[in-house]
Design goal:
The complex is a heterodimer. Chain A is of the alpha+beta class. Chain A contains 14 helices and 14 strands. In chain A, the strands form three sheets. Chain A has a five-stranded mixed beta sheet with strand order 5-6-1-7-8.
């Protein structure tokens, strides 16, 4: 049996954990740079706020219903997510974290699911303060479906008999099924299939003639035959990138270079953390495409590294140089990014026979940077090319604190 | 708490191998004693003298474990009246009551009292002011 454990309104719940006075009030979390709504409390959903709504468009609703607004605090969400996953891990012989707020657990050899699963939920909620829902079923697709239904059913739903499964799929809208996107939904709808129950009742032969392998897997899963394995790990990363919008438009090449320098620095750190070297480095710049009155410019430039690498010095040098080449005076830039591709695991690195590798010292320096920044906090030691003013830095006006990661931010009690 | 790694620097031997090599153990780390369940532990800070007579001073770091269910006399952190309080926990007529040195917080007037976690230990700087200099300024102070 598979269990899909999912945090309810995760970002909103994480914010409320340290601000209990906000329980029961509408609350939204904005994306990086405070652009769009990316998470909503139940109450905010009822106020009509949609996922992805730009902040400036829902400003009136926010004021009208007194909706609490937060910038996304990934430092906090990351730590709370780790706590939830570690707590969940204690209850399953095997667990696969699927995203920041959900995980598949494998329930092998557990006899009394109807007592065990509510106990998991109670314990995780108590230990972490984050409400979760758990759906249990013989396949991952059904576990996902059970989880959706669990949210209206005391947070737990165990589909352990054919009768329970039949009842659950019967009215379940096919568009909420795991793996059904807009295109698939349109196709099924045109065939008159609107519920998971209807899809399941189609004969297997019809499925083979009309559907792709994805549809056939889904059908099998709905009948309780596992067709999606639990260890479908994501592929080895093809690219690692860092890109951000600026708080204000950038028109000055030096300031642009500062921003790109910081993104490149972050990128090099990411590569080292994953023990990857990159062969190509692309830098791109964006203007604001929604402003028809601004001259538009979307340049990009890709450079090949002579030897695949991940040290901060080289990456920053190449990236800032490219940014300066791309820059055109008189253009208002809104966003920049650095993308690394041609990734090679550290252990498979090969040197060109004619090259003399002189990166050893820079690699050691980068390792030391990482250690210092790990011990004393990110950004403690950094490249001077990032500058000090950081006028381009991300906007996060409504950022909450690092309650669990920074001593100066811990909560004071009376 | 399980020790994740043996916390010892690797020694490069240039002469004789140390006879203690086979007997090395991980060095003591205070969080092994203070923290029982790291995945359920949070840190808050005392910011009042309301529990002074019971040994908690303003500035103390509170180690809070959410996995415990409070019993009578446990010191807890609770949220009442839009505020976090650290007090001793009692029940009276099946209702929770928080008791400090000279105040009582109960829920008779219909407010919600939510116990956030149980305080398992505290950390305090014991240095006299004259020694709180340089890197020692930060001992258990924030």
């Amino acid at each position: 049996m598979f269990a899909l454990c999912d945090c309810n309104n995760f970002y909103a719940s994480a914010e409320r954990l340290f601000r209990p006075e906000l329980n029961g009030l509408p609350l939204v979390v904005l994306s990086n740079n405070d652009g769009c709504v990316i998470a909503r409390s139940e109450e905010a959903k009822q106020c009509g706020i949609k996922m992805g709504d730009p902040e400036f468009l829902v400003r009136d609703q926010i004021n009208k219903y007194n909706i609490q607004v937060f910038s996304s605090n990934y430092v906090l969400y990351g730590d709370i997510s780790e706590r939830v996953m570690s707590n969940l891990g204690r209850w399953f012989p095997r667990i696969d974290v699927y995203s920041i707020d959900e995980a598949f657990g494998w329930l092998g050899g557990v006899s009394d699911l109807h007592h065990y699963v509510p106990e998991i939920r109670r314990s995780v909620i108590s230990n972490t303060g984050i409400p979760i829902s758990i759906g249990v079923a013989p396949t991952k697709t059904l576990a996902k479906l059970a989880n959706k239904l669990a949210k209206q059913n005391n947070g737990v739903l165990v589909l352990d008999t054919p009768e329970r499964i039949t009842e659950a799929v019967h009215d379940f809208p096919v568009k909420n099924l795991w793996g059904v996107g807009q295109q698939y939904f349109n196709k099924l709808k045109s065939l008159g299939i609107e519920t998971a129950g209807q899809l399941r009742e189609m004969p297997e032969l019809w499925l083979k003639q009309n559907m792709t392998i994805v549809g056939q897997r889904m059908w099998n899963e709905l009948w309780g035959k596992p067709s999606i394995s639990i260890d479908n790990t994501p592929d080895v990363r093809k690219g690692v990138s860092v890109s951000r919008s600026f708080q204000n438009y950038i028109v000055n090449p030096d300031i642009l270079s500062e921003a790109v320098s910081m993104y490149a620095c972050r990128l090099a750190e990411k590569l080292r953390k994953e023990k990857l070297h990159c062969s190509y480095l692309q830098v791109f710049l964006y203007t604001n495409q929604h402003r028809e009155d601004h001259p538009q410019h979307f340049p990009s430039k890709t450079n090949k590294l002579s030897i695949a690498g991940n040290n901060t010095n080289d990456i920053v040098r190449i990236a800032t140089q490219a940014a300066r080449e791309l820059y055109k005076p008189g253009i208002k830039y809104r966003k920049a990014g650095v993308i690394s591709t041609g990734l090679i695991p550290e252990s498979e690195l090969q040197l060109n026979i004619f090259d003399v590798y002189d990166g050893g010292k820079k690699d050691d320096l980068s390792k030391t940077l990482d250690l210092i920044n790990l011990a004393y906090g990110r950004g403690t030691i950094r490249m001077a090319s990032e500058g000090y003013r950081k006028t381009w830095k991300l906007r996060h006006e409504y950022l909450s604190k690092g309650y669990t990661t920074r001593w100066k931010d811990i909560i004071k009690v009376k | 708490m399980i020790r994740a790694i043996e916390d010892r620097a690797e020694q490069k031997i240039s002469g004789f191998r140390s006879p203690a090599d086979d007997y090395l153990e991980g060095r003591l780390n205070i969080s092994e004693v203070l923290v029982i369940d790291p995945e359920s532990t949070f840190y808050f800070q005392m910011d009042s003298q309301s529990m002074k007579n019971q040994g908690l001073l303003s500035g103390d770091i509170l180690v809070i474990d959410r996995s415990l269910i409070p019993v009578e006399e446990a010191i807890v952190v609770a949220f009442v009246n839009s505020c976090f309080y650290c007090r001793r926990y009692y029940t009276r007529n099946n209702r929770p009551v928080l008791i400090g040195d000279d105040d009582e917080i109960d829920t008779t007037d219909g407010q919600i009292l939510q116990v956030w976690g149980v305080v398992t230990s505290i950390c305090r700087n014991t240095l006299p002011i004259s020694l709180r200099k340089g890197k020692y300024r930060r001992v258990c102070t924030l």
